[in-house]
UniProtKB/TrEMBL annotation:
PANTHER family: ALPHA-AMINOADIPIC SEMIALDEHYDE DEHYDROGENASE. This is aldehyde dehydrogenase (NAD(+)). It comes from Nonomuraea rosea. Residues 35-489 form the Aldehyde dehydrogenase domain. Belongs to the aldehyde dehydrogenase family.
Length: 510
């Protein structure tokens, strides 16, 4: 599908008007750093940045907010998040537009990201009445043991460009009901989206008479994130990004005995068994591999297909890839938008060259689109390659739409291939054999944090805890009991006996 890309003036005007409708004071953005749109490579907006010195002031303000917010009953805190969810619903279309303009997501995926924000607000509102502790039997008569959970402190959030709003909401909705304020350092590639989210939360806080500075956004470069990581007043740092980034963040937070929640790289695979429904597998694989132009941490990067079905599966995948509409993400019918920038495109080209050198063959895709029309925009055809083995480049995460297909002969071999990469985020198996499915999700199966059957590797629901193992960082966000990471646990012993027996039968009379 060949389209004419919109002009820079058209996109800039749309971005300014959309941000204004979300409550952003667009006249106060300043004339600082220029942000561009990956849709055409043109100037989108100019936004003033803060420097690292702003972090201490923000954390100090957040700490004061925490002292008040921690005493507010959790269901009352939930009312703030409920109002945020209502405002997100009201401005769903506007936020989705900003996401498309700033990071190039197709409209459907951008709307889905905002819906994810709304969903996690709903979840957090319910959670505000379910921050359960437990009662524990004491070995001493007349004593009661119990666990209680209390607000933790200031939460620092560092988010990446590919989910410029949803990751903030995962952390913020849960943190707020847990009693914690948030200081957010968003991707510098998506400042308008961040400012729009912050404006909506500020409005909700004002309407609910919540303390000031429960949420602050700091637009700036890497030094701002580094200052947030190092600040002793930040109790928890939730950082989303590359494994390389996580290697720097984790030790620095640990050095000051803070907590970190790391959501890092993924190199996700699907095992396709002989009994698999190949039409179902093809649909699941193509969305997971080509959606968001391959720029999700849960993007499928490997297919491990049984030798009996690999040829037929590759034929289906190649046919689907040839029909994928690549183009303007805001245009109806587009399924694959642009890569975020030229560095991403260069990394994709390098990976494709390396794959061929390492014995791979390109089956479909890999070409660039719209280069003459927009030389600073980087549209690419999702690439499909067959590999003889899991070579070095296959073991690496390339943040682009590259899918490697590998053969296997036994399920044991397939599971070993799935697990033989440094990352451990998401995985899936396509099979009609219940035993194969059960093995894959068992302790002897996939070693990932997300293990799916008969669906792809991306598109997680907010009800489950999101995160992975190994070089993915081990963090958990969003649903299930991920809320515990935003609180501190206290074990309480209450003596109502009038005597003082000691535990373990110790005697110490004075």
């Amino acid at each position: 599908m060949e389209t004419t890309l919109p002009s820079a003036d058209e996109l800039a005007g749309k971005a300014r008007e959309t941000a204004k409708r979300c409550g952003v004071n667009v006249d106060a953005l300043g004339d600082g750093r220029t942000t561009t749109s990956p849709i055409n490579g043109g100037r989108l907006a100019a936004v003033d940045w803060v420097d690292a010195g702003a972090v201490d002031d923000a954390v100090t303000r957040a700490r004061q907010a925490f002292l008040a917010w921690r005493t507010v009953p959790a269901p009352v805190r939930g009312a703030l998040v409920k109002r945020l969810g209502e405002l997100l619903t009201e401005h769903k279309r506007e936020l989705a537009t900003l996401i498309s303009l700033e990071v190039g997501k197709i409209t459907s995926e951008a709307l889905g990201e905002v819906q994810e924000m709304i969903d996690v607000c709903d979840f957090a509102v319910g959670l505000s009445r379910q921050l359960y502790g437990r009662t524990i039997s004491s070995e001493r008569p007349g004593h009661r043991l119990m666990e209680t959970w209390h607000p933790l402190g200031v939460v620092g959030v560092i988010s990446a460009f590919n989910f410029p709003a949803a990751v903030w909401s995962w952390n913020t909705a849960i943190a707020l009901v847990c009693g914690d304020p948030v200081v957010w350092k968003p991707s510098e590639l998506a400042p308008l989206t961040a400012l729009a989210c912050a404006a909506l939360l500020d409005r909700a806080a004002a309407e609910q008479d919540a303390p000031a500075y429960l949420s602050q956004v700091l637009i700036g470069g890497p030094e701002v994130g580094e200052a947030l990581v190092d600040h002793p007043g930040v109790a928890l740092v939730s950082a989303t990004g590359s494994t390389r980034m996580g290697r720097a963040v984790g030790p620095r937070v640990a050095a000051r005995f803070g907590r970190s929640l790391l959501e890092l790289g993924g190199n996700n695979a699907a095992v396709v068994c002989p009994s698999a429904d190949l039409d179902l597998a093809t649909r699941g694989i193509v969305f997971s591999a080509a959606g968001t132009a391959g720029q999700r941490c849960t993007t499928m990067r490997r297919v491990i297909a049984h030798v009996d079905v690999v040829d037929a599966l590759v034929e289906r995948l190649a046919g689907a890839y040839s029909r994928l509409p690549v183009g303007d993400p805001t245009a109806a019918g587009t399924l694959v938008g642009p890569l975020i920038n030229g560095r991403a495109h260069a990394a994709m080209r390098d990976a494709l060259d390396a794959a061929v050198r390492q014995g791979g063959s390109l089956v479909a895709g890999g070409g660039r689109r719209f280069e003459d029309q927009a030389p600073d925009a980087f549209y690419t055809e999702p690439a499909l390659l067959r590999m003889r083995e899991q070579s070095e480049v296959v073991r690496e995460e390339t943040f682009a739409p590259i899918l490697y297909v590998l053969p296997y002969q036994s399920l044991t071999e397939a599971i070993a291939l799935n697990n033989a990469v440094p990352q451990g985020l998401s995985s899936s198996i396509f099979t009609r054999d219940q035993a194969e499915a059960e093995v894959f999700v068992s302790a002897e199966g996939s070693d990932c944090g997300i293990v799916n059957v008969n669906i792809g590797t991306s598109g997680a629901e907010i009800g489950g805890a999101f995160g992975g193992e190994k070089e993915t960082g081990g963090g958990r966000e969003s649903g299930s009991d991920a809320w515990r990471g935003y609180m501190r646990r206290a074990t309480n012993t209450i003596n109502y006996s009038g005597r003082l027996p000691l535990a373990q039968g110790v005697e110490f009379d004075v």
